[in-house]
Amino acid sequence: MKYLIAKSLKDAIELREKYPDFFLLFGASDVALKIKKNQVDGIIDITHLKELSYITKHKNSITIGALTTINTIVSNSYINEFTPILSEASKEFASHQIRNIASLAGNIANTSPVADMIPPLLVLNTKITLLSVKGERTLFLKDFIIGFKSLDIDNEIITSFEIEIQKSQYYYKKIGSRAKLNIAKLSLAMLKNEDGYHISGASLNPYVQRFTNLETLLNSEKYNDTDIQIAIEKDISPSGSFRSTKEYRTKVLFNLIQDALKRFNR
Ligand SMILES: Cc1cc2nc3c(=O)[nH]c(=O)nc-3n(C[C@H](O)[C@H](O)[C@H](O)COP(=O)(O)OP(=O)(O)OC[C@H]3O[C@@H](n4cnc5c(N)ncnc54)[C@H](O)[C@@H]3O)c2cc1C
């Protein structure tokens, strides 16, 4: 296995262009498992790119550098004050030790159906910025994640995430079988702002996405429990796994949505 170290951002994008099939490595909390399974031909180590680790507040938005760790997000006062749903999801993520090394970009780029950080970022309408030797581009996260383990990425490196500051109510719940080092059986991230409801969740589809049928239904303000049930069935296709059954995930999501609605309407 080839191991290359990027000493600068310029270095990193040039190596990315030259070796598109190599894995980028920051915290290695996902990549290490792939190395163990002999699934990796080469690594581009990006741990030296300190310039991609920051959280900045602007007048109407917050920018998070791609290589900001989950623990940095947990303890950041801007995130706590202006995007508390992201703060909550970060606190529920893995263990203190893993949060210390795991980066936000690594969690998104790994594109796991159980990735904890994707649902809150999706409901916050987050934009993602990518850089390659051809230049920079920014798109919505919802358009970046296009399928199971599939991203709209072309020899690029994620450099940052941008979240607009918005007045909203939020609800976040992660369900698992233990308090710490807990892989989600499912999670629900729900936000209500002046545009209406934004809803997403992990472990409920082959890749994390917005629940558009539920959003449309709840925004109509004319619905009953059966309508919610039907919208849930349209929005999710959970797999049955050793962690829980499809029926369990569907039932618990229904209960969480009821819980969230009660809280929003209080
Ligand atoms: C014990 C344990 C518990 C865990 N618990 C959880 C949990 O509760 N919730 C959860 O969501 N995840 C969990 N994970 C998974 C993991 O910690 C996260 O996905 C983490 O955020 C990955 O970040 P990293 O920096 O370690 O990425 P790495 O492993 O270094 O890289 C992961 C992937 O991201 C790509 N990548 C990294 N940086 C960039 C970039 N800047 N641009 C483009 N691509 C990039 C790499 O090529 C690679 O494909 C757990 C892992 C372990 C080992």
Keywords:
five-stranded antiparallel beta sheet, globular, binds flavin-adenine dinucleotide, 37% helix, three-stranded parallel beta sheet, Uridine Diphospho-n-acetylenolpyruvylglucosamine Reductase, domain 3, 13 strands
Secondary structure: elements and pairs:
Blueprint: E1 2-5, H1 9-18, E2 23-25, H2 31-36, E3 42-45, E4 55-57, E5 61-65, H3 70-74, H4 77-82, H5 84-91, H6 96-101, H7 104-110, H8 118-123, E6 127-132, E7 135-140, H9 141-144, E8 145-147, E9 150-151, E10 157-164, E11 169-175, E12 186-193, E13 196-200, H10 212-220, H11 225-235, H12 246-265
Parallel strand pairs: 1-3, 2-3
Antiparallel strand pairs: 4-5, 5-10, 6-7, 6-10, 8-9, 11-12, 12-13
The structure holds flavin-adenine dinucleotide.
- The first-to-last residue Cα distance is 57 Å
Judged by helices, strands and strand pairing, the structural class is alpha+beta
**Mean pLDDT figure:** 95
Name of the level-1 CATH class of the largest domain:
Alpha Beta
Question: How much helix, percentage-wise, in residues?
Answer: 25-40%
What is the number of E strands? 13
Q: What are the bound molecules?
A: flavin-adenine dinucleotide
**Widest sheet: strand ordering:** 4-5-10-6-7
From the 3D coordinates, which CATH architecture of the largest domain would you assign? 2-Layer Sandwich
What proportion of the residues form beta strands (DSSP E)?
Answer: 15-25%
Biggest sheet statistics: 5 strands, antiparallel
Name the quaternary structure: single chain
